[in-house]
């Protein structure tokens, strides 16, 4: 039983090898750990579960490992995935400093889509990374996420409300001409933030040399993908790939991960 867990700064995502549905839990939701423990415990009843964790939030990852070990002992074997476990060439100065979610997303996208490509991961932040024709990770850019930007507007002003992005893009096409310019405060905030994120991505794709394929993932990926698709004849394909990071982790062939021995503490032995 192989499980992939993507520990982000807003949510934890859990994927099981060979299964399409993914468990998503907000880090801030106090019941999160219970749900995750139950999920891991259920999966490890039948056989020892190998849990591959890609984390960009040390406190959350440590709490998850500690609490699971307290309940499941060695039935759950954690492996914290780092840059040197991944079969992808990394062209940045310090690969160990690049967010592991960005590297796993780049690896997964390089398997499934035409290169060169850009990976957009829209969550707490929006990362926009380039993978070249030779499947080399070339680095990228980091932008505040949709929720972070609305929270900043609400925190910095008297009159602007915090707004929820979930479901916002299914109900309406925020960037369609009839909604522009926005006629009320909430619409103006949504239009301003989404158009600036989408516009920034379009500019970055240009600066990256106009790759033909843009793979979009992350909890706000549906909004961002819809925005990219609604812009006038985008000269690249937009591929929405929900939960790219945890699903890549869960479905990565064991032989593809380097041969370091994982221990049940989740710490790596070299
Ligand atoms: N069940 C959910 N829990 C948390 N965030 C969700 C959920 N469903 C959709 N979202 C949206 O996903 C965003 C978090 O995206 P995600 O990619 O998980 O972030 P990160 O990887 O940075 O933790 C939130 O800002 C929210 O808008
Ligand atoms: C940029 C990130 C915060 C994105 O994390 P997320 O939005 O998924 O919570 C994460 O990839 C990270 O902590 N990166 C380390 C710095 C870097 O990638 O250069
Ligand atoms: K992410």
Automatic annotation (TrEMBL):
State one Pfam family annotation: Pan_kinase
Per the record, the major location class is cytoplasm
Keywords, sorted A to Z:
ATP-binding, Coenzyme A biosynthesis, Cytoplasm, Kinase, Metal-binding, Nucleotide-binding, Potassium, Transferase
Cofactor (UniProt):
K(+); NH4(+)
Reply yes or no: does the keyword tRNA-binding apply: no
Where does this protein reside within or beyond the cell?
Cytoplasm
Q: Which CDD domains match?
A: ASKHA_NBD_PanK-III
Q: Supply the EC number(s).
A: 2.7.1.33
Purpose: Catalyzes the phosphorylation of pantothenate (Pan), the first step in CoA biosynthesis.
Family, similarity comment:
Belongs to the type III pantothenate kinase family.
**HAMAP family membership:** Pantothen_kinase_3
Q: Which NCBIfam families match?
A: baf (TIGR00671)
Give the protein's recorded name.
Type III pantothenate kinase
- Origin organism is Allorhodopirellula solitaria
């Amino acid at each position: 039983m192989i499980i992939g867990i993507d520990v982000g700064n807003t949510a934890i995502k859990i994927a099981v090898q060979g299964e399409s549905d993914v468990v998503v839990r907000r880090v801030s939701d106090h019941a999160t750990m219970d749900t995750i423990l139950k999920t891991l415990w259920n999966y490890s009843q039948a056989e020892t579960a190998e849990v591959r964790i890609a984390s960009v939030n040390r406190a959350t990852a440590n709490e998850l490992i500690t609490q699971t070990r307290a309940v499941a002992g060695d039935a759950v074997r954690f492996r914290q995935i780092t840059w040197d476990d991944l079969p992808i060439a990394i062209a940045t100065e310090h690969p160990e400093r690049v967010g592991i979610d960005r590297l796993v997303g780049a690896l997964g996208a390089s398997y499934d889509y035409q290169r060169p490509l850009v990976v957009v991961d829209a969550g707490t932040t929006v990362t926009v990374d380039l993978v070249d024709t030779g499947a080399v990770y070339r680095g990228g850019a980091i932008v505040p996420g949709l929720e972070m930007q609305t929270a900043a507007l609400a925190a910095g002003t008297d009159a602007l409300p915090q707004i929820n992005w979930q479901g916002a893009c299914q109900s309406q096409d925020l960037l369609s001409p009839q909604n522009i310019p926005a006629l009320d405060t909430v619409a103006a905030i949504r239009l301003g933030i989404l158009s600036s994120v989408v516009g920034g991505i379009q500019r970055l794709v240009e600066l990256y040399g106009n790759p033909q394929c843009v793979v979009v993932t992350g909890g706000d990926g549906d909004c961002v993908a819809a925005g990219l698709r609604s812009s006038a004849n985008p000269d690249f394909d937009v591929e929405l790939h929900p939960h790219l990071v945890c699903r890549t982790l869960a479905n990565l062939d064991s032989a593809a991960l380097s041969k370091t021995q994982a221990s049940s503490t989740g710490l790596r032995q070299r």
